[in-house]
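Dig into these lines:

——
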Amino acid sequence: MSEQNVIRLRGVAIYHTDDPFGSCSEKKLLKQGELILSDVNFDINAGEFVYLIGRVGSGKSSLLKTLYAELQLIEGEGSVAGFDLRKMRRRDVSRLRRRIGIVFQDYQLLTDRNVFMNLYYVMKATGWTNESEIRKRIDEVLRVVSLETKGYKMPFELSGGEQQRLVIARALLNRPKLLLADEPTGNLDPVTADGIIRLFQEIARQGTAVVMSTHNTALIEEYPSRTILFSHGKIQEVDVAGMFEKI
């Protein structure tokens, strides 16, 4: 894996299993697991912005879950942010996730804490101890996502777009090499979704790789970038015109 690669997959097959990091042997998992994708090969480098697109159930979310070790990689070779996915164990998962940022569609915010405390909680949980550095970093990420005046607000007082920006701020706290976003605009209106895409583009320009799953083809037409199509258990890289012919 080169210094520029943040993701490298070779000959990967992805299986869904009920207990991805259980005590079963790889042979048993291969036998019992449901094959989702096969023959997956690609690299993603620092600063790239990449769309994953395909129909619901085509494997986009399963691939993302494999990249952040929610699903175990049991066939092929894969590296993410310097971690070998084939050698991952439960104890390694938290270390990997400190090196990447994850943006969930359902936000997963702490509803009883304000914006500042949502971020403060994550920083303390991931090992930050210096209070002045914590406050400085929170201020930095809130400026990045244009929420610098919202630190005192509770999550329910934010719009949907603002809540998504807070989730992105949370994902940026530990200066990740990679940002993974699973349908981050799925619940947003078109204008708000546009703002989220522009934010991701800026994050990529600053050197963090951004990988975003979506089924929103209008966004890709408006903001074209490298695109990987998921179809019939396989993936292939396509240009925008080719994608709309195939999807």
Q: What stands out?
A: The beta strands are 5-16, 34-45, 49-54, 75-80, 83-84, 100-103, 178-182, 209-214, 226-231, 234-238. The chain has a mean pLDDT of 90. The CA atoms of residues 47 and 204 lie 5 Å apart.
